[in-house]
Amino acid sequence: MCNSLLNHCTSWVDETLGKTGTCIEEGIFRYNILQNHQKSVGYDIAVCSEDANAVIKKVSYNSTTNKFSGFPISLKHGIPCSRQFETDSFDELKSCFENKDKTYYLNVHMVKPLIASNPYSSPLLLVAYGINNNFKAIDVLNRWIWMFENARQFNVRIVAFATDCDPRYLLAMRLATGFFGRINNMSICDR
Questions:
Q1: Is 24 within 8 Å of 30 (Cβ atoms)?
Q2: How would residue 17 be classed by pLDDT, with cut points 50, 70 and 90?
């Protein structure tokens, strides 16, 4: 599901998950689902993967949540600011179409349980959201630290983050490990 998921937009994700009785809201981290998954599968350590793939620029409306998806979600310290595109006003919607770019990429975070007795356990979709690819390495690092700390509150310890070779992700990895880079005001190794 991961490969096909990355090739489509958020509306496809909503539709596919809706068929299984699962709901995803763009930009909302599903830590409650992670906790249920952790209890049912029986693991306490996991790897988190992140990837952004180009999508067809399209805006869609979800009548259940009264939200539009297809506009890029802003990031605050690397964390998506969800629920930005709710409106009951046609003029506000018109303004979004006239003044906002459409999403270029769908950013997806998956959590893969690490279980010695079941190395082929299914990953869990933690969050998906549209972005315009304007972020920095420090945003990635802040997001990973935030995700690590939140997952721990739900009894899951993320031991690694996996991604592609985008230089921003590589720099975040270097900063996290102290490999040819360092952040003076942030202690990573205490986590």
A1: yes
A2: low
